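Appendix B, Record 12. Input sequence as logged:
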Amino acid sequence: MPLKKSELYASLWKSCDELRGGMDASQYKDYVLVLLFMKYVSDKAASRPDYDLIVPAGGSFADMVGLKGKADIGDGINKVITKLAEANDTLRGAIDVADFNDDDKLGKGKEKVDRLTNLVAIFESPSLDFRGNSAQGDDLLGDAYEYLMRNFATESGKSKGQFYTPAEVSRIMSAVVGVSKATSGTQSIYDPTCGSGSLLLKAHDAAQSATGLDLAIYGQEMDNATAALARMNMVLHDATTAEIAGGTSTLASPEFLDPAGSQIKRFDYVVANPPFSAKSWTTGFDPLHDVYERFKFGQPPAKNGDYAFLLHMVASLKSTGRAAVILPHGVLFRPNSEAGIRRELVRRGLIEGVIGLPANLFYGTGIPACVIVIDKAGADTRRGIFMVDASRGYRKEGAKNRLREQDIHRIVDTFGRQVEETRYSRLVPIEEIERNAFNLNLARYIDAGDAEDPQDIGAHLEGGIPEADVRALEGYRDVFPEVVGSLFGPGDRPGYCRLTVDPQAIRATVFGHDEFGAFAKSLAEVFDEWWRSVEETLASVKIGDKPKELIQSISESVLAAFAHAPLIDRYDVYQRLMDYWAEAFQDDVYLVAQSGWCEAAKPRLLINVKGVERAQPDFTIGKQRFKSDLIPAGILVSRYFPDMRTSLEALESDINVLEAELAEITEEHGVDDGVLADLLDDKGKINRRGLIARLRGLTDDPEATSECAILERLLAVIDGIAAKKATAKTAKEALDRSVSECYGRLTEADIKSLVLHDKWRARLAGDVEGEMARVSQSLVLRVAALSARYASALPALAADTEAAWVLVAADLRSIGAVVE
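Logged structural output:
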């Protein structure tokens, strides 16, 4: 049975627990990722004779397995890794950095042996078999590698999490830098502070997906261990020709020079996330006498390297090159020498755009950052800078903020099409920027705050709802003219109206109106038309297909389908689709793309494996527990066995009623002097044998009629629960057998029908209905807010206050107080 993407990720992350006690997350990532790499390469070499890498005898993961439990396991693992590295030049200095025999980090003696043995055993698990676990073109393991690094970055803390750029930001940069417009495979992508290489790979993948071109990759990373991660990352993503230089500072010792070695090498595209505000950027060289002349626009501050990195990137671009760089917001407005550099960049037309991002996105800092887009090709004719303030679009996730799919797409769409949108984006003329002393602070040009909700003093003083507030409901009036008309009527003076229904009836008025029904129907028709357009594509998924290309296609189509739907924000519908993709949809598609519809639909036997989270079974046969990922048993039951489910649910309902009655009787009569006090055990449970014995003893006692009635009812309830549970158990076993047999009878057509209609379509249709209800509810809430805001005019409030004071004064006088 193929491995689900989500289960692969969870299993790998659990492996990290084996090393948590010995070292910081920034260190143990090196060990876990090397083992992951070894397992992947070994599995691939075993299944593909034409695999690019050589796995020599004594240099495979199987050789590591043979070391489990041995006293010299640490040294042995080092030797296995060394053999693999020596057989492949691209792996030297990449996989042989971490020392698996380090007593300080891994412990000594048995502690180290047990830790490494357990870690190897986790990767040995049958559930982590990568030999057949790749949908062609979709890098399952590469994605898992990125998943692990994101988790490592999260746990490494501010000082040590800078090796990883969030994938969401990397995708934005890859899009706005324009790699999708590459025209030749000889073009290049460069990252002067490449970290673990994730940003480079995202740009490379974006170019390859859009053009089919395999652009050359160049990266430099000062930290050797992090550069090793980048090299492994390149291999896992089949970018084996990438050149990653490590161990030196890009500013002091740039590794990529022209053939003469006297000038910086020029690239077509540059993407980077340099360390924010580096204080020691001048270490190792004198920027005043920079031999590469990178700082001719001005000298960055000695204690702040943001502009030093930016100027290095400008110098690294060809005359037609483009760059996207992440920098802290301060670079947009800081004074002194940075202001002079900023002025030169703007005047020369080098800055195409600035994109403001939310705070707390990055692992090295919580401050907000921006993406500056440099475009040399259009510099001569540039008349403005396109600015996007996307700082408010994100989702809180744990301690960090995360960009949602809709945030990413909106940024890319807006920037790519240069669409001006109120409170979000503007093309700001250079003349306006010059009037602002070349200050690029987004707040000077875009008011991204919420639109002010005005308070009407006249309405507060004299009552009524301002007609201006009703006119502000224009979007709703276009769709629900009669609904809005039925909610508001003429007021007692010009310019004001009144609510014509009870505030408690607003929701019923909106949702019960024919216009709402028509609105719901129109959205359902949009959804149905979109579904018909993608249904055949989904039904045609086959072994070897690329799930990432599939979701790219259908997600773009949903944006197009809902572009003109009333009231609904198409990006919200898009987000619903992408949330479902992340939750379960992608796992389904990956399963089918790996093994086909029929194989993917087969239930799998659940086996408890150390380090792998136990899944809840769909059904049980004897002691064997089964799970079906593609077609959950509930879907099968709804389609084929609804009567059996209804009967079982009725039994469970009866059991719940009886158990509630049992709890009520026990609570009422189980007190210290109650009838049941001496029949309860330490856990508050009834002793049935004692209950029967008590009843027998009271049978002939005429004064115990009431007590007998209680005990008899209690016994009936207890026996009723037992009988119902036995019947329910038999019914559940029968249903499980029916479900198990049904899975074996399903044809491919049956499977596709169940998955496409009962699972995927049903969920997505429900999501669209949810969006419809949400926007309609916002009308209800707005009308209710207006009603409440102006419900009591000032004179009425004053009269109420005076009446209340009269009552209070009377009470005070009644107790002898003097009231003026």
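Confidence is low (pLDDT under 50) at residues 133-138, 609-613.
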